Amino acid sequence: MQLTVLRKGIRIFVAGLALQRHARTLLALCLCVTPALAGVLPDDRTDALYHRYQGGGITIQGPSVLIQKKITDNFALNYNFYQDYITSASIDVKLSASPYKEKRTQHSGGFQYLHGKSTYSAGIISGSEPDYKANTSYYSVSQDMFGDLTTVSLGYRRGWDNVYRDIKDVATGRLENDPTFHQQADHRGYSLALSQILTRNAILNLNYEAITDQGYLGSPYRKIRYSDPTVPGKGFTLADQIYPGTRTSSAASGTLKYFLPYRAAVSGQYRYFRDTWGIVGHTVELGYTQPALGHWIFDGSVRFYRQNAASFYSDLFPRANYSNFMARDRELAAFHSLTLGVGASYEFHVPSAPWINKSSLNIHYSRMIIDYSDFRNALYAGQDGFTAGNEPLYQLNASILQAFVSIWF
Amino acid sequence: MADLQEIIGRGLRSSANPVKSCAKRMTSARMVLVAVGVGLLLGGCSPIQPWVKPYEREHFADPIMSFNRDPVSDTYLEHVLESREGARGATGGIGGGCGCN
Amino acid sequence: MKHRIAAMLTGAVATALLLTVPASGAGSSSSGPAPQFNLESRGGPKISLAQYKGQVVMLNFWASWCGPCRQEMPLLENIYKKYNKMGFTLIGVNVEPDSKAAEGFLQQTPVSFPVIYDKDSTVSKAYDVSGMPSTVIIDRKGNIRVLHRGYKPGDENEYLDSIRTLVRE
Questions:
Q1: Strand, coil or helix: what is A97?
Q2: Of A219, A275, A274, which is closest to residue A247 (Cα–Cα)?
Q3: Is B57 in contact with A200 (Cβ distance < 8 A)?
Q4: Where is the domain boundary, B29, B44, B59?
C-alpha cells in the first residue's frame, strides 16, 4: 500500500496491491483447471491446499480447495475456492504508505464434456477484494488424434475487471471506497496447445498464448519518482504513474518430459515471451521426479527467468512529466530470477473408507530470488551517502510453502 | 507493437490510436483460430501410422509422467510467478496419459 | 511479426490435423480369420487359439496400468462363468513386457479364465490392437466377428449380445 498525505492531511490514499493489477486477473486465467488427457475426463478428486508466500515484507497465505467430479461418464464438474490473506509492508508500501491487511476471495466453477475424441470445457472465475473485482470466462476444446498420440487444444478467455480505490480516513482510521474512482479493464486470451507423444518414454508439449488487455492496466496506488534536487536529502519526488491503455503479449513454450528406465521423470521447459510494452522474457525450467520407498514421490526443480524492462519503466525519471507513459513497478523492471523448488508426496490408502481410491499428503517448498538490474531501494535515498538513483539495487528473497492433501475417489 | 514504442521513444503527445492496430492483430488471431477450428472438423486418411501403440503407453499412465499431477499446487505456483514477473501465459500442460478409451 | 508466427504455427497444426486418422467409434466390426498364437499362460501350460476351435473365443487385451481394463475385469469374470459351459471361452491377453504388476493385480482381483502374457507384443501386433482395452470376439469357425475398442460401463451388455448370438451358431 502507498500512502500519500495531502497537504491538508485529511485523507490518506491507501494503496492496495502487492500484486500487479493485471496479474490478479491472470490468477483467474491460471485457475482453468482442465488437465486435458487423451480422450479421458480427469480423475475424480478433491484437494485442500494451504499456501504461504513470504518475501520482501509481504506475507500472503490462505487456502485453495478443489473438487473435481464426474457426473456421468461424459460430463464432469469442477469447483475451486481460493483465498489470499495479505499483510503487506513491501518496499513500495514503505516508500510512501503504511502497512495494510487485505483479503481476496476467488470462486471458480466449470465443466468438461467428453464426446468421442473431443473434450469441451468452459467455466467462470470470479475474484473479489475490497478494491478490485475480476471476472473471467473461459472456453476450450481439446481433440485427440493420430492414434491418441497427439492432442490439440484451443482456448479462449475473456476477462472483465472493475478497479476501485480505497482511502483511509485519518479520523476514523477505517478503509473506505473512494467513490470518485472507478475504472475498468478488459482481457482476452487465445491459446493453442499441442501435445505429442514422441517415443514410449518421451512426450512433448508446445504452447502458444496471446493475451490482450485494454483499459486501466496500472495501479491507483503505485507511484513513479523523478529526480528533484529541490527536495533535501532524498532528492526525488513521487508522482502518479501513467500506464498505456493497451497491452498485447504473446508467449510460446516447449516442454519435454522423459521417463527414465529406473522409474523417474525428468522435464525441461523453455518459454519465450514478448509484449507491446517492450518486455522480452526468457524462462528455462528443469524438473526431476523420483518415486522412492514405495509410497513416496520426491520432486525438485530449478527455474531461471530473465526479462528486460518495459519501455516506459524507469527507477528514477530525470524530471516531472518526462514521457507519455511512466511506471516504476518492479514487475516491469529488468531483472533475472532463480527459483528452486523441492517437494515430497506420501501416498496412502484408507481401508476404512473404500470409496477413496488413493490419497496423498504433500509438502512443497520454493525459494525465489530476484536480482533487479534497474530497480533500486529508494528507502536508502539521502542516507549513508546514497543519492537518488545510486541506492543499492533491490534484491527480493521469497519463500513459498505449500502443504496439501489430495483424495481420489 | 512498433507503433507504441515509436510514440514513447519520440516522447511526443501523439494522437495515434494503439487500440486500432491492436484490434487488427486480434482479428488476424481470430481468423487463424477459425482456420484451425475448420482444420479440426476435417479428418482425413493418414499416410503415417501411429508409432507408439496403445499397449506401449504404460509409462504415460504413470502419474509421474503427467503434466498436471497436482493441479491446485501448479496453478498456485504459476500465479505467484506471474505476479512477480512481466511474462505470462503458455504454461499449461496437456496430453499424455495412458490413452485408455 | 507476432501474428505471422501465430499464422505459421496454426497453419502447421492444421496440416498436421489433415494428416490424422479419423476418430473411429468404440465398436466396429472386423472380419477375417483370427491370427493364431501360442503363448505361455499364467500357471504354466502354453495356450494356442487352435485348441479352442469350435468354441466362441473372446480375447481381452489388457494391462494393469490401464484403469478401464481393471474396471472391466470382474465383469469379464462374470461373463466367463456364465457362458463357459455353452462353448464359450475368454482369454485375457496381458500386453505388458514385465508381468510383475499384472500378477500383483490378479492376486488382488482373481479371475478363473486363462491369461496369457504377450511380452513381445506379437499377439497385439497380429490383432492390430489400437486401443486399450480391446476386445475381440471370434466365432466357432475361427473368424473375427466383433472388435471393440475401449471400455465404458455398459459395454459389457454389448459383449453379452454378441456372445449370445455367436454361441447359438
A1: coil
A2: A275
A3: yes
A4: B44
- Closest by Cβ to B86, choosing from A141, A142, A281: A281
Q: What's the length of chain C?
A: 169
Do B88 and B77 belong to one domain? yes
Angle subtended by helix axes B18-41 and C2-18, to nearest 10: 10
**Interface mutation vs chain A, best among C13, C71, C72, C108, most A CBs within 10 Å:** C13
Contact residues for A205 (Cβ-Cβ < 8 A; gap 6+)? A193, A194, A195, A196, A253, A254, A255, A256, A257, B67, B93, B94, B95
What is the residue-level pLDDT of chain C in tens, covering all 169 positions?
Answer: 555 555 555 555 555 554 444 444 444 446 788 899 999 888 888 999 999 989 999 999 999 999 899 989 999 999 999 998 888 999 999 999 988 999 999 998 999 999 999 999 999 999 999 889 999 999 999 899 999 998 888 888 999 999 999 888 8
Residue A8, pLDDT > 50, answer no
Give the residue numbers spanning the domain of B69: 46-101
CATH 2.40.160.40 fits A3-408, yes or no: yes
Q: Establish if C19 belongs to a structural domain.
A: no
ipTM of the complex: 0.90
CA end-to-end span of chain C = 67
- The CATH number assigned to the domain holding C88 equals 3.40.30.10
Asked if B94 and B54 sit in the same domain, the reply is: yes
Asked whether A222 and A14 are in contact (CB, 8 A), the reply is no
Do B18 and B6 reside in the same domain of the chain? yes
Residues of C in contact with B4 (CB under 8 A): none
Q: Are residues B32 and B57 in the same domain?
A: no
Residue C4 lies inside a defined structural domain of this protein: no
B18 sits in the region (left: phi over 0; alpha: psi -120 to 50; else beta) called alpha
Same domain, B61 and B35: no
Q: Which domain holds residue C60?
A: 25-167
User: Would you say the C-alpha torsion A230, A235, A240, A243 has a positive or negative sign?
Assistant: positive
Q: How far is Cα A150 from Cα A144, in angstroms, rounded to an integer? A: 6
CA distance C86 to chain B (A): 30
Domain count, chain B: 2
Is B38 in the same domain as B53?
Answer: no
Measured over the CA atoms of residue A211, residue A217, residue A223 and residue A225, the dihedral's sign is positive
Q: What is the C-alpha R_g of chain C? A: 19
Closest-CA distance of chain A to residue C52, Å: 32
